[in-house]
Amino acid sequence: MKVYKIAVLPGDGIGPEVMNEALKVLKTLSDMDSTFDYEITEFNWNTDYYMEHGLMMPENGLKQLKSFDSILFGAAGDSRVSEHIPIWELIMPIRKNFQQYINFRPIKLLRGLETPLQQKEDIDFVIIRENAEGEYSTSGGKMYQGESRELAVQNTIMTREGISKVATYAFQYARDHKLRKVTNATKSNAIIHTMTLWDSVVEEVANDFKEISYEKYYVDAIAALFVERPKDLQLVLASNLFGDILSDLGSAIAGGLGVAPSANINPNGEYPSMFEPVHGSAPDIAGKGIANPVAQIWSLALMLQNFGRSDLHDKVLFSIEDVLEEKRTLTPDIGGKATTEQVGDAIVRKLQKRM
Ligand code: ATP
Ligand code: MG
Questions:
Q1: Span from the CA of 5 to the centroid of ligand 2 (angstroms)
Q2: pTM for this prediction
Q3: What is the spatial distance between Cα 99 and Cα 165, in angstroms, rounded to a whole number?
Q4: Which domain holds residue 202?
Q5: Would the ipTM clear 0.85, i.e. be above it?
């Protein structure tokens, strides 16, 4: 039997608090399912580590991580270091070197959760975002022409290969999960070089998946759709920048940061993928024991799905929903009075019943 090797990076702030609860869930799964086993190695690469060593991870950090089946990440960063340090020294090197060119975000209003939208329609779709190139490039610069005249240029880099890979992943995901439609978030009417290439490559890929319908929307119109008719969406395919913005809007309509999971995926499995809650280290509530562990536990469920264990993914997600629906054990961000630990324990109890 395969023993999954998981690298655990709890990080800072509420990261370690919510990670604790996710690890309880993981242990419950292997205790109760004889066909599932794992081994974890914890890495203390966080702000304390940075203060001591001047780096977020050791020089050979990526080499240490490479042999794992996956990485479970909490949240990194606190007020002692500038915000870009954990991003550029830890998260981005992992994403880039491990070619995690897919960012996967389910936008699903779980049973028992509230949405700020008026219509309590079904909200259940996914965002697949290009995660390795596009608008977030370091190419460009500031050109100074004297004090009052400044000019800055920021280049977007899109390649046929990069677009084709994310589009193929999206359509294949739709096929595997029996989704009927892929919606392309574009802006090729105004961004005439990169987004037209994006559209044409996405359309070519769409032609290879005839049974899945394809539609193209401008990203501003999609933002409106998220609010007005989210039930029309099944899978939104977006570039790095557009996907980033839409994902935050998505989490806002589906219960907020405390319950929003994400995955950074290397689809061919050559390198480990990384699973992490959308939220950061939330210094304002760190140490109080009231962080919502659902985002971290759902991220763990996405990891199980990525291992090919959709059965375990579903059990974890249903157990989370059982707790949310009961409304007895909720953290303050979603209207309750329970602690992080109480919510984690309640999810474990529901899971034990479902195994
Ligand atoms: P970072 O820069 O690390 O992303 P941030 O300042 O943007 O941090 P987040 O950690 O993303 O803040 O969270 C924003 C706010 O949302 C927090 O201050 C916190 O109040 C709330 N929040 C985030 N995650 C959770 C959670 N798991 N449970 C409860 N509240 C949360
Ligand atoms: Mg943040």
A1: 28
A2: 0.95
A3: 11
A4: 115-128+159-254
A5: yes
